[in-house]
Amino acid sequence: MENSHFKKAVVSHKFLAQERTLLANERNTLAYIRTGFSAFVLGIASLKFFEGDIFFLYAGWVAVVIGVLFILFGLVYYPLRKKRLSPIRMNTLCVILTHVYGYTWTGTTRT
Q: How many domains does the chain have?
């Protein structure tokens, strides 16, 4: 009885840790996109407000390019990380269904 409770706790802990990892990846992606938009807007503002100063003109274009790169990095890299985590999540889900709740892939109970 005590061993069964321990197995449930360990499997549940692993599953929750993987869910936290997925949520952290989503949060990081949104941070990249937010930072990219901020840099992009800063660059556009620099281009509009300081049209006569060559230094701010170049700084504005650099900020625009960096902003676009950050946005693209966030949008492209997130699906790659999510795909890499998906097999881990499915294995954990299979373990939870099999060991904790007594179901297999076909939905029948264990004997």
A: 1
DSSP structural state of residue 109: B
Residue 32's nearest CA partner among 63, 4, 67, 2 is 67
Residue 50 resides in a domain: yes
Q: What is the pTM of this model?
A: 0.63
In the chain, DSSP finds a helix count (H) and a strand count (E) of: 2, 0
> Which domain range does residue 53 map to?
13-100
Q: Which tens digits make up the pLDDT trace of 16-74?
A: 777 888 888 889 999 999 999 999 999 999 999 998 889 999 999 999 999 999 999 99
Cβ-count burial 16-33 (b if 16+ within 10 Å, e if not): eebeeebeebeeebeebb
- Whether residue 40 contacts residue 68, with contact meaning beta carbons closer than 8 Å, is answered with yes
**What is the C-alpha R_g of the chain?**
24
